[in-house]
């Protein structure tokens, strides 16, 4: 007689894999709270990525124009938001220079506990 096969548990998504993505998304949403900045990024990011793809196909003029325009839109969004562009903030952080990660107008003031 054969023993019944033990059923394997259903695969469960590893929560450790999802946490970094959630952290990245939460950080991105904190840095893009102004509606103009948020929506201009939804246009600028795909445009910059399309520019890289076009450059890979050696369409130099269209690729460089799309890439520069995409980054220009993102830069304008961060000027309106009042914080540094993500890549520039990372470079400043590596060099030990001051940078603005989240605009002061969106930062939650710390709760003061006491008597």
Give the helices and strands as they follow along the chain.
Answer: HHHH
Proportion of residues in extended strands: under 5%
Helix/strand-derived category reads mainly alpha
What is the first-to-last residue Cα distance?
Answer: 75 Å
Shape type = elongated
Oligomeric organization of the protein chains: single chain
User: What is the mean predicted local confidence, pLDDT?
Assistant: 84
| DSSP strand tally | 0
Cα-atom radius of gyration: 22 Å
- Unreliable runs: none
> What summary fits the major beta sheet?
none
Bin the helical content: 55-70%
What does this structure look like?
The protein is mainly α and 115 residues long. It has a domain at 32-95. The chain is built from four helices and no strands. Helix 2 packs antiparallel against helix 3 (60-81). It is elongated, with a radius of gyration of 22 Å.
List keywords for this structure.
single chain; 115 residues; mainly alpha; 0% strand
């Amino acid at each position: 007689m054969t023993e019944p096969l033990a059923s394997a548990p259903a695969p469960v998504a590893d929560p450790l894999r999802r946490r970094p993505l959630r952290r990245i998304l939460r950080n991105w949403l904190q840095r893009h709270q102004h509606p103009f900045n948020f929506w201009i990024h939804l246009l600028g990011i795909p445009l910059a990525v399309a520019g890289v793809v076009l450059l890979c196909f050696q369409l130099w003029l269209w690729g460089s124009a799309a890439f520069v325009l995409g980054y220009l839109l993102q830069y304008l969004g961060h000027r309106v938001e009042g914080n540094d562009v993500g890549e520039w903030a990372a470079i400043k952080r590596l060099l030990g220079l001051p940078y603005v990660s989240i605009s002061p107008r969106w930062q939650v003031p710390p709760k003061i506990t006491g008597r």
